[in-house]
Write a structure and sequence with these properties.
The chain is α+β, with helices and mostly antiparallel strands. It contains 2 helices and 9 strands, in the order ββββββββαβα. Strands 1, 2, 3, 4, 5, 6, 7, 8 and 9 form a 9-stranded mixed sheet that branches.
Length: 148
C-alpha cells in the first residue's frame, strides 16, 4: 500500500506557460479537463500535485509543493505557481472549486512551515490577458465536450 494519500481533489484544465511563445499551452498538447489531486506523504511531510486527463488518464502534471513556494490566484478561476523548471496553471470550471483547492494548498504550506497563497487580483493586465485566454479555451473545451 502506498504511503501517499489524496488530501484534495478538483477538476481543472492544466496549463503550462511557454516562455518562448509567451502564452499558456494545454498540458499534454490537447485541451481537456483533468482530475487534480494533492497527495500527501505524511511520514516524509511531502506533498505533490498530480493531474490526469479525465478522458484518457494521461498524467499532465506531477509537481512537488515545497516550502517557500508562491501560489498565485491570478483570477478567481485561474491559479498559477512555478517550480525551478516550469510555470503551471490550473483553470477551474468555477470559483468555488478553485477556492477549495487554494485553501488546500494553503493548508499544505502551513504544514510545511512556509509558502504563500496570494489572493485574486483584478487589475494586472497580464492576469487579465491570461483570464481572457483561459475563458476562450474553456469555452472551446466545453463546445468540444458537447459535440462528443
Amino acid at each position: 500500500m502506498s504511503e501517499e494519500h489524496s488530501i484534495a481533489v478538483a477538476k481543472a484544465s492544466v496549463m503550462l506557460y511557454d516562455d518562448q511563445q509567451k502564452k499558456w499551452l494545454p498540458a499534454g498538447g490537447a485541451q481537456g479537463f483533468s482530475k487534480i489531486h494533492i497527495y500527501a506523504h505524511e511520514r516524509a511531510n511531502t506533498f505533490r500535485v498530480v493531474g490526469r486527463k479525465i478522458n484518457d488518464h494521461e498524467v499532465v502534471i506531477n509537481c512537488s509543493l515545497t516550502k517557500g513556494m508562491k501560489y498565485n490566484q491570478a483570477t478567481p478561476t485561474f491559479h498559477q505557481w512555478r517550480d525551478s523548471r516550469q510555470v503551471y496553471g490550473l483553470n477551474f470550471p468555477n470559483a468555488a472549486e478553485a477556492k477549495a483547492f487554494a485553501d488546500s494548498v494553503a493548508e499544505v504550506f502551513a504544514r510545511l512551515g512556509g509558502g504563500t497563497v496570494m489572493a485574486p487580483k483584478g487589475g494586472d493586465p497580464n492576469q487579465q490577458q491570461a483570464q481572457q485566454q483561459q475563458q476562450q479555451q474553456m469555452q472551446q473545451m466545453q463546445q468540444q465536450q458537447q459535440q462528443q
